[in-house]
Specification:
The protein is 40% helix and 15% strand. It has 446 residues and is an alpha+beta fold.
Length: 446
Amino acid sequence: MTSLTDHPTVRRFYELAPPPGPMAAVPDPVELKRACRELGADDVGFVDIERPEIADQRADILAAFPRAQTLISYVVRMNRESVRSPARSVANLEFHRSGHEVDDVGHRIAAMLEGRGIRAMNPAMGFPMEMDRWPGKTWVVSHKPVAVAAGLGQIGIHRSLIHPRFGSFVLLGTVITEARIATPAPQPLAFNPCLECKLCVAACPTGAIGAKGEFNFSACYTHNYREFMGGFDDWVENLADSGNRYEYRRRVSDAETVSIWQSLGFGPNYKAAYCIAVCPAGEEVIRPFLQERAAYLRDVVRPLQDKPETVYVTPGSDAEAYVPRRFPWKKVKAVGNGLRPDSIDGFLFGLTLIFQPGRAKGLDATYHFTFRGEETRSATVCIKKGTLEVKQGHVGKADFSLSADARTWLRFLAKETSLAWAVLRGRIRFRGSPRLLLAFARCFPS
């Protein structure tokens, strides 16, 4: 067997290899930006891995790419009229086509850097991604805060990035590289392009965006992502629970079944992106809104508002009450959203995602939770004036206290065991009025 040092590839490497030493930083950030634009990016910015704005992402980024030094944030424009179309096939085609372009641009940028001897990695633009982490964080990089730190825009009240020139009609990508790019740290955009015109509030079919800028995550998620992630999980369980074709048809319409097939065959179909579609912010976007406002409302906003469609809601949620009140011509269908925690940490974090301010109206209570067994945790949940606060440990005086075996509590949340069974066996204990437990449950339908 030939020794490693005698192998032709190894010999050739040492013949051509430069002297060992530290890798040089990219010498010209202006040239690198130009190269990224030539490779398809419509705008580009750089973010150092040590920037405080992405501190909460640093561990995940380094786990995926331990040599990370700089994040190259970039945007790709979408075609506005396609996104605005009430025909979901048109809008979804644009999202998918532009999403593939973002991934292609990231691939080309990473390949260009690799060709210069600089290691780089391009995580996926969208999700699902790392689904073994479900229902936790299933992506490598959160592109929005990176783009904000890179000075490419600010987050509007619809929770999407608004680019100062292209508005909301952009998709985001990030390339992670080992290069230290020699440029002054970019500053976030000095103003927010969001006009706070509230058109996103008016167009959202689920009421997920409040008039004061508040956001109901589960209302948006349950409807918009009905055909993938947790919504697909719920559909599969509907299929499994149906005793025969007739029961399945009572649960799921033929149109819903073939729509699921379309999502599986073509790519996950969003049910709505109306908040982006109606957004007039951005230098290239704003003219019709300023100069022809009546026509803008007639041609862009009202077709989405007036569209007859099925809106998916969680039973007992704020959205279930909102849709028939605001859009009585739209059909409401109550469904599960698949947001079942698989850990106590997931349960505590998930409370912030599924909290329903409307259902919490009139409730003013502090809850202490103590978990034992496989996971040992203590936490405080405060609900007051339609707001939620979750704290580690027991803080303040509790109006209601609950102690539970961690695994039993998660099985109860997944409807795999009953509360009565768990209480009788001492797996769950509580102190305080049962009415407070019922009131708590009303705030977190899933």
